[in-house]
Amino acid sequence: MSYVALANVTLGANASSVTFSNINQGFRDLILIHTGSSTNDSINSLQLRLNGDSGSNYPQVLMAADGGPVSATFTDSGLICGYTISSGGAMNIAQIMDYSATNKHKTALSRHNAMPESRTRAIAGRWTNTAAVTSITCRVDTGASFVAGSTFALYGIAA
Amino acid sequence: MKLIETKTLLSDASVISFTSIPQDATDLVVLMSVRTTQVISSWSDVILRFNGSTTNYSTRNLYSDSGGGAGPLAETSLTMRISMASNTANTFASNQAYIPNYAGSTAKSLSIENVQETNGATAFNAIIAGLWNDTSAITSLSLTAPNGNLVAGSTISLYKITKGTGGATVS
């Protein structure tokens, strides 16, 4: 598969959210790559809201090595992609499959790595909406901010 | 995503290396199809290194093996468990490493998927969070078999991904 660069930002200052809008509908899947940290000393999660939907419309299942093997199912107000820890070094990869389709819910697979906190996770999620994904808002689930220097890159995967 | 180079061993060797990695992209993807000459009962190790460095690595693994083992694992090297001579014939392990911002001046986080392929009872697979706590740009990388050799036919492909510009709203 070939990654076609769609958008990218490196934060020059702390920011509460990063939004990719008017996403090109000409691909099969989307890949979002995030690196960086957040302003909260506690462990926070990178959360993706599709088309601005902040409802509890994202059922998910995860497996994690966070000190002990963990598995969980939950529903959130966005796709949880892993941590944005304050000590830096976190990276998250999220793939949203068939994002431009209008006859299916949107599924996503995410991998999360945060070695300063010795954590790794794999998360499968679903947005219970058949609308094509036209925007993605990246935020920290606790309301903290992304730290300057954090990067967000969006790629399209051709069919 | 563009191919930088593919290397396939024509004969057994202890290491496969890539040098003079172009610094004109954003992320690296390393795809590995590998097997070693080692003969033991479980799996064989291979180690990924950057710029020839053997220090400042750490990982957190979530693994399982079909022999009933499972759990977290913390290590100080980028070690993957792969297929070897005592596994099913003609079977190579599949691994992928994604390294964002490889040419930047921050510590290098990476994401690894690791699968040992065999029909045996202890096939290993893992997701791995890795960190090379070094701010140097990655200009070379190597995959080393610490026990035995990588067999002929082992292949590594190195790809680069270049980010776009703009297109995001920050608030």
Task: Write structural notes for this entry.
The complex is a heterodimer of chains A (about 160) and B (about 170). Chain A has no helices and twelve strands. In chain A, the strands form two sheets. In chain A, strands 1-12-3-8-9-10-5-6 form an eight-stranded antiparallel β-sheet, with no helix packed on it. Chain A is about 0% helix and about 55% strand. With about 160 residues, chain A is mostly beta strands. In chain A, strand 9 and strand 10 (about 120-125) form a beta hairpin. Chain B has about 170 residues and is mainly β. Helix content of chain B is about 0%, strand content about 50%. Chain B has no helices and 13 strands. In chain B, strands 1-12-3-8-9-10-5-6 form an eight-stranded antiparallel β-sheet, with no helix packed on it. In chain B, strands 2-11-4-7 form a four-stranded antiparallel β-sheet, with no helix packed on it. Chain B is globular and about 50 Å long. Chain B starts with a strand and ends with a strand. The interface of A and B includes residues 35, 69, 91 and 112 of A.
Mean pLDDT of chain B: 92
Low-confidence stretches of chain B: none
Main sheet record of chain B: 8 strands, antiparallel
Strand order of the largest sheet of chain B: 1-12-3-8-9-10-5-6
Radius of gyration of chain B: 16 Å
Rounded to the nearest angstrom, the radius of gyration of chain A is: 15 Å
**Structural class of the helix and strand makeup of chain B?**
mainly beta
Into which percentage range does the β-strand content of chain A fall?
over 45%
Strand content of chain B: over 45%
User: Which segments of chain A are poorly predicted (pLDDT under 50) over 5 or more consecutive residues?
Assistant: none
